[in-house]
Write a structure and sequence with these properties.
Layout (H helix, E strand, L loop, with lengths): L3 H30 L9 H20 L2 H12 L1 H18 L1 H13 L41
Helix pairs in contact: 1-2, 1-4, 1-5, 2-5, 3-4, 4-5
Length: 150
């Protein structure tokens, strides 16, 4: 299984494309009700269309009653239940290595990236960095100015 940070990033990406697809389906249904043309499907919605059945089947197979209920809530209102869906996938992946492996494969097929984010922080003069949130991997350097004690 991937490390927890990688699997979390993959799950976030998978839930994002699933959400895009669920929202697209709702938009199409509204357009049909108004007898209007359906909007074009975004790339994210297309990826979601490919991943949603596999995610849904995995939750149905490995999830408990509450997790399946969260899936149903997510499909009904993806914006409201996005975080709950990510938690469900993370919980199931944590206890079912086969599901975690399937999520990794699915994310790779959908070209969901788990790579890091590069952030550059430049501090000058009396600048002060109070807090950095998140998990940092890689190299961090600090260059003290000429008036610095360091």
């Amino acid at each position: 299984m991937a490390d927890p940070v990688t699997i979390t990033a993959l799950i976030t990406g998978l839930v994002g494309v699933y959400k895009a697809y669920a929202e697209y389906k709702a938009t199409v249904a509204k357009a049909d009700a108004k007898q209007a043309p359906a909007p074009a499907k975004s790339e994210q919605a297309t990826k979601g269309e490919q991943t949603a059945p596999i995610i849904k089947a995995g939750v149905e197979q490995y999830g408990d009653a509450d997790e399946r209920a969260d899936l149903a809530s997510f499909e009904r209102n993806p914006a409201r239940y996005e975080d709950a869906m990510a938690r469900v996938l993370h919980d199931i992946a944590g206890r079912e290595p086969a599901f975690a492996s399937r999520l990794q494969t699915l994310a790779r097929q959908a070209n969901i990236q788990s790579g890091g984010v590069q952030v550059n922080i430049n501090v000058s003069d009396e600048g002060k960095v109070d807090q950095a949130a998140g998990i940092n991997f890689g190299t961090m350097t600090y260059n003290a100015g000429p008036d610095s004690d360091e």
